[in-house]
Amino acid sequence: MSHPGAAGVPRAGGLRRAHWILLAAIVCGLALLGGVLFYLSPVLALLDNHDLSPGKPLVTPAATPPPLDSKQRVNILLLGSDNDQKFAQDAVLSQTMIVVSIDPAKRQVTLLSLPRDLWVAIPGHANAKIDLAYKEGGAPLARATVEKAFRIPIHYYAWIGLNGLIKVVDRLGGVDVDVLHPVLDDNYPNDFSDSGYGTERVYLAAGPQHLDGRHTLQYVRSRHGDLLSDFGRSVRQQQVLLAMQQRTAGMDLVTALPAFARDLNGHVKTDLDLVRLTQLMLFMRGLRPTDVHQAFITPFVRDAVSPDGQQILQADWPAVNAYLRQLFGGDLLP
User: Fold this and answer.
1) Could you state, in order of their start, the residue ranges of all structural domains in the chain?
2) What's the CA gap between 71 and 103, in Å, rounded?
3) Among 61, 208, 217, 287, which one has the highest count of C-beta atoms within 10 angstroms of its own C-beta?
4) Residue 319 main-chain phi, psi, to 5 deg
5) How many CB atoms lie within 10 A of CB 39?
6) pTM of the model
7) CB-CB contact of 217 with 166 (8 Å)
8) On the CB side of 306, how many CA atoms lie within 13 Å of its CA?
9) CATH topology of domain 74-331
């Protein structure tokens, strides 16, 4: 005999079963989330390493980064420094300055090298060599200096130290480069001595070479044995960047990203977030060599002496500006 209303009352066993299913789902979800965070923790730690330049004024970027789903150009200022133990870690010159300009609409990338000895106006400071901007104000001032001098909006930056380059090249399994001419440097800085001082002899033969991290650093950093001095070094730096990009072509970057992050933690500073970094890495991996344009302003600069007696490079700014309009079109700052 049935009781009125009994059919609408859930059984106690059913409630307990639903409760345990829900609890198990929550536990599984938390475990999955914890696993993802553990997997990505090296990446998150790396991306949390911003260049805040304690005690130095923060300079606001001139341009807001484009949305992730846009086809607008994205410009990244790539900085490299000699940051061995003989220098204060928060006051190093930028020996490398390359604007990496990514045009998603055309699937093209432009690499624009900026000479370290170029004489420019540094916001809030006297005119100086452009490499001084990073020393005086970190990435924010380096960014503002490039924006002021070249009218290129810098949306992100990435700084890498000596050991960072060595580690990323070794993680890639080395790079293949065609050494344009022999590199012979009897006064190469011995970066890995206990004191950071001293020199060593470096020799790299001309022709195709497979370089590990330490020899790659020597290749991109040496300038004493190059007839083109810093100009030749800029060419070699871009050559290595292209070789590194080619090495990533067959890699599963999503799987490899945490390993790279562990290697680079403490050797890299950037304001790229995880989503943008992953997006850019996947974009770069799919590029062909013909999609990358190498650019230099060296034809438009000349040797000069600064008012305080330094050997500098002086730009022909009308010629530089015309060249930048060819490269960036209407994407320059007003």
Assistant:
1) 13-47, 74-331
2) 7
3) 217
4) -70, -40
5) 12
6) 0.80
7) yes
8) 16
9) Aminopeptidase (3.40.630)
